[in-house]
Write a sequence for this structure.
């Protein structure tokens, strides 16, 4: 038994002995908060009217927590808390650096918007199936993935978010949902299993799973261990999670089937967790192997962005077109990963944050548009701009933002990425980013012209009832649009944060020092 | 499967297995056992009861909805970690108290609370899946 | 021992992926079950295989005895088993529900979400 009689054992060899500052609790607070409110909401699953009244304030608190964490990290650098007092690398560490904190804060804002949108979009049966509890648990998984400093723990958070995402995907058990759900579930199972295989090899080679510890030991092992195999496995697993070409086919098969707010949340957050894991593992832990793979990643990136938007051009259903645009955006983020320069990585990080907000908002806009005009099909759509000017205007802003046109938040990361590609002479990568921008403009421009600008088809005006737009949903959309406009007009804070985050990835000494304060970085 | 033998023996077998599962749960801190395996034993006990006496009988017997049991377990586990906040130690640290009950020193810890939470999560989750599948058979 | 285990892991992966290539959801499910076990065995092997001494600290001792098995892979596998178990249970229910609602377990007949002939978007205004 532990406790008082431990005088002969030196506790300092195994334990964190100094008291933990209350501010450091911000590292675990968001995840614990999500799990606890999720558990409370599960017990209230029959009280469908009460659920949003608890969940939306809880998500508001979550946003405040993650913003406080971001502030804490900006002010004081990377923060670490190791579970159960065991010294790292034996205890599981939660380590939050600038990239993790930035992504976590953006994700929390998106989740709050989804919670507000879901109040009107998800009916009583959807709430009995557990929309709000699953929303909190999926946020626990996403935030846990952004914050953990341990590879196996990252796997566990991936599974938490994956199992919650299954629950959200089949909310209501409609035929199309089950169909999409089967493909989503099996292909994602393969991806996480590959991740687990890679983690098993990683442990076999390194004998440790702590990311900071791996970052130290990778240099020593590089000569003897087959790190290239390992990194390729990680690349494949995370590329599958991120829906990069050619392992992206689960996404267009499933993302249009669930409730709209669920699609919006998935499009905003899930693939970005894959991108985050790629940046964390490939750039921070195995920079030389990433360098060796950079051509492969660059080709995959170019194909993903171009083929994604070409797929979007061929769709008649707006939700499916948006699903392909998600894939196209992943390609743009991978371009920065392929470049690996500070500017390129900063562009990727900025673009990921931008994409979280804008893709979610685009689905919201499509949902509101469908409610106003009666459907997601482009054939037969029309006349939306006259039905509700404000929603149409916000949709236009989002279309311009996703295409990367000024003055919205899509422009700056693309500028950074194009410049970074040209700096290293990868003109074809820069070219494909620009061509993707052009094709995206054509794609969203056509949706705008067909669904919003042209007059409603003959005789349809009478058949489609004029549903009033939902206040909560409109507020959620407006909030996200405000974020993209603000980040477009005043890009400097986000840009400098992204640049600092990229520097932190490329030189993990601050990260390592946060986990192992005793070992000074070389 | 509803033979007389199984139906008459199932309540005893189930209560014995649930008792054993609690024993496994409590010995788990320093010896093989713990919340997860205890929960599995309890869930299989309830599954046997369900096979013998039907799903409705199990639902009556556990009184709460299995998902609610899971949720309470999850909350307990999380709260067991949060206790560390008040002791100024990192999340999920083991905290011990040694109260004397009827002259016997009893070692209580936040680890135990966590383990009981895990036990409830496992019982609830496995039960809800098993009961759901058993009900689904009769649709 | 390790080479033998490595071969076994490879064989299990082969079987799992062969089953994954099937069009029937039920076979893919079996593949998922085997895949989970293959990975667990892989992690176990990666932690080095030792014999017979369980990693439990006996009463009165402070450290593990010499030659005890590595406890960390066992903890990892326990976690992975829990996860793959719950995954499998979910997939089983999902496959069953899909079979009930879609009336097929062949993946190439599951075309509700992606219809075979989809309407093209309008080409003109």
């Amino acid at each position: 038994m532990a406790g008082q009689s431990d005088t002969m054992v030196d506790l300092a060899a195994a334990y964190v002995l100094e008291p933990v500052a209350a501010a450091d609790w911000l590292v675990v607070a968001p995840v614990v908060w999500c799990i606890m409110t999720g558990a409370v909401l599960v017990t209230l699953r029959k009280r469908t009217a009460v659920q949003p009244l608890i969940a939306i304030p809880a998500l508001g608190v979550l946003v405040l927590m993650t913003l406080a964490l971001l502030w804490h990290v900006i002010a004081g650098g990377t923060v670490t808390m190791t579970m159960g007092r065991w010294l790292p690398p034996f205890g599981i560490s939660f380590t939050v650096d600038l990239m993790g904190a930035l992504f976590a804060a953006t994700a929390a804002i998106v989740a709050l918007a989804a919670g507000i949108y879901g109040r009107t979009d998800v009916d009583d049966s959807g709430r009995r199936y557990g929309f709000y509890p699953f929303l909190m648990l999926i946020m626990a998984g996403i935030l846990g993935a952004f914050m953990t400093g341990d590879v196996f723990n990252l796997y566990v958070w991936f599974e938490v978010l994956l199992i919650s995402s299954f629950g959200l995907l089949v909310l209501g058990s409609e035929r199309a949902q089950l169909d999409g759900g089967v493909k989503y579930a099996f292909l994602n199972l393969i991806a996480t299993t590959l991740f687990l295989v890679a983690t098993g090899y990683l442990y076999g080679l390194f004998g440790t799973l702590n990311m900071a510890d791996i970052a130290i030991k990778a240099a020593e092992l590089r000569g003897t261990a087959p790190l290239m195999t390992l990194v390729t496995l990680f690349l494949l697993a995370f590329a599958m999670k991120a829906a990069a070409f050619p392992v992206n086919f689960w996404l267009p098969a499933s993302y249009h089937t669930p409730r709209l707010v669920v699609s919006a949340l998935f499009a905003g957050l899930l693939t970005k967790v894959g991108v985050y894991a790629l940046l964390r593992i490939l750039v921070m832990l195995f920079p030389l192997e990433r360098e060796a793979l950079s051509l492969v990643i660059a080709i995959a990136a170019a194909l993903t962005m171009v083929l994604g938007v070409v797929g979007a051009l061929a769709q008649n259903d707006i939700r499916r077109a948006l699903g392909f645009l998600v894939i196209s955006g992943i390609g743009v983020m991978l371009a920065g990963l392929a470049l690996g320069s500070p500017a390129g990585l900063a562009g990727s990080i900025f673009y990921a944050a931008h994409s979280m907000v804008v893709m979610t908002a685009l689905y919201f806009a499509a949902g509101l548009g469908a409610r106003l005009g009666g459907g997601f099909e482009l054939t037969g759509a029309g006349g939306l701009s006259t039905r509700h000017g404000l929603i149409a205007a916000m949709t236009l802003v989002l279309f311009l933002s996703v295409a990367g046109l000024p003055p919205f938040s899509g422009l700056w990361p693309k500028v950074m990425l194009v410049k970074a590609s040209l700096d290293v002479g990868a003109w074809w990568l820069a070219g494909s980013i620009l061509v993707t921008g052009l094709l995206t403009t054509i794609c969203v421009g056509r949706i705008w012209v067909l669904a919003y600008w042209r007059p409603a088809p003959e005789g349809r005006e009478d058949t489609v009832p004029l549903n009033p737009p939902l206040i909560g949903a409109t507020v959620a959309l407006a909030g996200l649009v405000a974020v993209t406009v603000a980040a477009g007009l005043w890009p400097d804070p986000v840009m400098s944060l992204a640049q600092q985050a990229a520097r932190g990835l490329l030189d993990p000494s601050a990260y390592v020092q946060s986990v192992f304060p005793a070992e000074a970085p070389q | 499967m509803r033979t007389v033998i199984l139906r008459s023996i199932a309540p005893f077998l189930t209560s014995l297995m649930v008792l054993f599962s609690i024993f496994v749960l409590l010995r788990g801190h320093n010896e093989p056992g713990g919340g997860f395996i205890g929960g599995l034993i309890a869930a299989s006990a309830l599954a046997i009861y369900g096979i013998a006496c039907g799903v409705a009988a199990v639902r009556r017997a556990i009184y709460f909805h299995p998902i609610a049991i899971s949720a309470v377990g999850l909350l307990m586990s999380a709260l067991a970690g949060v206790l560390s906040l008040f002791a100024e130690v990192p999340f999920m640290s083991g905290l011990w108290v040694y109260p004397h009950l009827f002259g016997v020193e009893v070692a209580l810890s936040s680890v135990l609370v966590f383990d009981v939470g895990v036990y409830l999560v496992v019982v609830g989750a496995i039960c809800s899946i098993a009961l759901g599948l058993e009900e689904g058979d009769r649709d | 021992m390790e080479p033998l285990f490595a071969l076994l892991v490879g064989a299990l992966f082969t079987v799992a992926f062969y089953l994954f290539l099937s069009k029937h959801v039920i076979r893919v499910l079996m593949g998922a079950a085997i895949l989970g076990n293959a990975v667990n065995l892989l992690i176990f092997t990666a932690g080095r295989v030792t014999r017979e001494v369980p990693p439990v600290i006996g009463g009165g001792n402070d450290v593990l005895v010499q030659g005890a098995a590595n406890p960390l892979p066992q903890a990892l596998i326990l976690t992975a088993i829990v996860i793959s178990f719950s995954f499998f249970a979910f997939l089983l229910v999902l496959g069953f529900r899909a079979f009930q609602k879609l009336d097929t377990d062949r993946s190439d007949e599951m075309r509700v979400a992606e219809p075979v002939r989809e309407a093209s978007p309008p080409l003109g205004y």
Q: What stands out?
A: Chain C touches chain A at residues 20, 25, 28, 32, 35-36, 39, 42-43, 45-48, 62, 72-73, 76, 79-80, 83, 86-87, 90-91, 94-95, 97-98, 101-102, 107, 110-114, 118-122, 125 (CB under 8 Å). The domain at 2-50+70-109 of chain C is CATH 1.10.287 (Helix Hairpins).
